[in-house]
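Journal club prep — side note

Before the paper discussion, L.F. wants everyone to see what a predicted structure for a comparable chain looks like in token form. Sequence:
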Amino acid sequence: MAVAKVFQNQLEPLMEWLDKAEKKFGSMESVSTDADKIEQQINEQKALVDGIDKHEPKFEELQSKANELLDQISDEDAAMVKDKISNLQGRFDDLREGSADRLTKMTEALH
């Protein structure tokens, strides 16, 4: 079950990173009306978006490892793995879309 160990070793840090990134995104202030403050918020948002972009290949690799693992485990375990991956991917997609939307709104607010 080396694949399962690799999967788990990839899953845990991604879940931790995603938890932290979601908390950071959720705690960001509303878009300011002050141009200087918006610039600061844009820089903060860009840092988050960069982190998301850097983690995307790790999520893709995890998905690939999950698919490999699904061929080696019972149907019950496969359902749990699929659920974990689906939940994680949904959260990641929501964070990516929310961050991109927020960055667009801030950029538009400056112009």
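L.F.'s comment for the group: The chain has a mean pLDDT of 93. Keep this in mind when we get to the figures.
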